[in-house]
Amino acid sequence: MNAEQDHAPHSRSRPFGAGILDEYRTFLHTALRHPTMVGAATPTSSAVAATVAQVVPSIGEPVVVELGPGTGSLSGAISTRLPAGARHIGVELGEELVEHLRTHQPGMEIVHGDAGDLLVLLDKLGVHRVDAIISSIPWSLLVDDTRLHILRQCTEVLAPHGAFTALSYLSARCSGSGKHFHQQLETTFDEVLTHTTWLNFPPLMHYICRRPI
Ligand SMILES: C[S@@+](CC[C@H](N)C(=O)[O-])C[C@H]1O[C@@H](n2cnc3c(N)ncnc32)[C@H](O)[C@@H]1O
């Protein structure tokens, strides 16, 4: 990120017209080739993005990490809330999605990597404390050990006042792995809240978790 980007207003809203077609095309292309990595057929709606972004601090110089930003459907709403001097880091596994993000979310620092290597990736960026983690990786499709491995790294780097969020389809929450993920969150954090957004297809819920135990 250059100095001009660093101080530029962090506002990038969802694209319209040809932009949104490009976003959907890129998302679908990756989803068809790597269905379990993406775990969704379309990007998340802006209604969800607006709600999820509420955990992002709008004062100070926060560091916010997005795990699995995809085409950036949550990133614009997050960036809009961030004050000057904030850092907005995205860790994304899909190569094509990384290229898309680098073009369309210039205020973000995009890391092409695996959330399973979170601490190493953040260390390379000189980041050892994070104020908010917004995760939309397909948690319920991960095996238990992988899920726990990523979750532990999130809690290790999260500031004491920080918030961790995880998105999940309502349907996934009722599956065996969805229930197990919920239990893992309950035993990992002192506070676990849920919020459902119906203006998404399919309806989507997200966990808001604070104070790792
Ligand atoms: C359900 S999509 C969400 C994309 C976007 N945030 C949204 O809400 O529309 C999941 C995203 O997580 C990425 N992903 C999956 N596993 C990952 C991992 N281990 N590390 C980083 N990104 C991952 C996928 O490539 C995909 O972009």
TrEMBL record:
<keyword id="KW-0808">Transferase</keyword>
<dbReference type="InterPro" id="IPR029063">
    <property type="entry name" value="SAM-dependent_MTases_sf"/>
</dbReference>
<dbReference type="InterPro" id="IPR041698">
    <property type="entry name" value="Methyltransf_25"/>
</dbReference>
<feature type="domain" description="Methyltransferase">
    <location>
        <begin position="64"/>
        <end position="162"/>
    </location>
</feature>
<keyword id="KW-0489">Methyltransferase</keyword>
<protein>
    <submittedName>
        <fullName>Phospholipid N-methyltransferase</fullName>
    </submittedName>
</protein>
<dbReference type="GO" id="GO:0032259">
    <property type="term" value="P:methylation"/>
</dbReference>
<dbReference type="GO" id="GO:0008168">
    <property type="term" value="F:methyltransferase activity"/>
</dbReference>
<dbReference type="Pfam" id="PF13649">
    <property type="entry name" value="Methyltransf_25"/>
</dbReference>
